[in-house]
Design brief:
disordered C terminus, 400 residues, mainly alpha, Growth Hormone, Chain: A
Length: 400
């Protein structure tokens, strides 16, 4: 196999992993569009509905805890593809769940498989990145964001067409299973193990602490800020600016659109100026965006501010995953699992923290308090090591 053939194979592997990222995003995006219907069908109060939905994030935290061990023992590809196929099968099951308890159980397992698949997808994507000789991890996360938008739009279309939930979810689940298994021949890629570090154990553990803690913190910050924008953007324009309910979707659309575009653009930026500078630039953009939101007089200003926020946080989670995966002294997947676990805790914490502060001070002050979060990201960015130069893989590094 020639070098061009090797790169072509690596590119195909990248596209295969992108399919798995999209499949991962489609699952929850599909279910979320049916939440109002499920709440009414099951006759749930706000509290019982919230408890049912919370089973998904709880399952994801549990899955993140053991995902590293699964990747270390089984490999990234089996974990990624199997988790993705299981997610599709669970989506089929969710379409026929007839009680809130059964649906909550399905959500828990979906959250679990989502977390293991997330770690497997990132581990394989980063292995391909090292072999391709350039940054691709941001684009893979961009594929996830695009998948989430596509899932939401398809869900809205299904609702407009009056498609029953027992048809909509199984059809999407079948598509995800077929797509996941179809990606398997492309995503297999053998990497050459990195040589062991020659530094002492004490020094390695010191570097590990600084790098992994910073990576986990930045992953949590990215998740926290994304949830602040997505959860509270619409509420903010209605409660603080007096906008109509029809305008509530505008800030969310601006955030997700900018987040997706930012992730697709961030790889080129990382290759040009490095990961640390990219993160710092993103932190500044996120800070300016939040300031615009806090002082916004109209909905379009909030949308502009959340667009800047989306661009700023776009590289945070992908680059945090990259750094965590490179933390020395850990088995494959362990650093990724740690970052994924903390990231999901950040997703759980954001609505609780902002909601609690808003209860006492008002939502505008609660959003203003979040200005400290991108500042922390700016300061922590320097703790991430600059990504080592990547090289074109030798043909022996590719599965034939």
């Amino acid at each position: 196999m020639t070098a061009p053939d090797a790169l072509a194979r690596a590119t195909a592997a990248r596209n295969g992993v992108a399919v798995l990222f999209i499949a991962n995003a489609l699952v929850f995006a599909t279910i979320v569009t049916r939440y109002p219907e499920l709440k009414d069908r099951f006759g749930l109060t706000e509290l019982t509905f919230g408890l049912m939905v919370a089973c998904g994030p709880v399952g994801s935290v549990v899955g993140s805890v053991i995902a590293g061990r699964l990747v270390a023992r089984l490999g990234a590809v089996p974990v990624a593809v199997t988790s993705s196929a299981i997610l599709g099968g669970l989506l089929v099951t969710a379409g026929f769940a007839g009680t809130p308890i059964l649906f909550a159980m399905v959500l828990f397992v979906i959250g679990f498989a989502d977390a293991t698949g997330d770690v497997g997808n990132n581990a394989q994507g980063l292995a391909i990145q090292r072999m391709m000789g350039r940054s691709i991890i941001n684009g893979l996360h961009g594929a996830w964001s695009a998948g989430a938008i596509a899932g939401a739009l398809l869900g809205a279309l299904a609702l407009q067409l009056g498609m029953p939930i027992y048809v909509h979810l199984p059809v999407m689940g079948f598509v995800i299973v077929v797509g996941s298994l179809g990606a398997l021949p492309f995503v297999r890629l053998r990497t050459t193990p990195e040589p062991p570090s020659v530094t002492s154990n004490a020094h390695r553990h010191g570097r590990l602490s600084a790098l992994l803690v910073a990576a986990c913190a930045i992953a949590a910050i990215g998740a926290f800020l994304e949830d602040v924008g997505s959860t509270w953007g619409g509420v903010y324009v209605v409660s603080e600016l007096g906008a109509g309910v029809a305008e509530a979707a505008i800030p969310f659309a601006a955030l997700m659109g900018a987040l997706t575009l930012g992730r697709f653009a961030s790889d080129a930026l990382v290759d040009r100026i490095g990961a640390v500078a990219t993160l710092r630039l993103g932190a500044v953009a996120a800070l300016i965006g939040l300031i615009a939101v806090v002082f916004a007089p109209q909905t379009w200003v909030v949308a502009f501010g959340l667009g800047l926020l989306g661009l700023g946080i776009a590289p945070m989670i992908p680059l945090a995953m990259d750094a965590a995966d490179r933390a020395p002294g850990l088995e494959p997947g362990t650093g990724l699992a740690a970052a994924a676990t903390v990231m999901r805790v950040g997703l759980l914490a954001a609505p609780l923290v902002v909601g609690a502060v808003a209860e006492w001070t008002g939502l505008r002050i609660a959003i203003a308090a979040c200005l400290l979060v991108p500042v922390a990201a700016f300061l922590l960015a320097g703790r991430l090591r600059t990504r080592a130069p990547l090289v074109v893989p030798d043909t022996a590094d590719l599965d034939r």
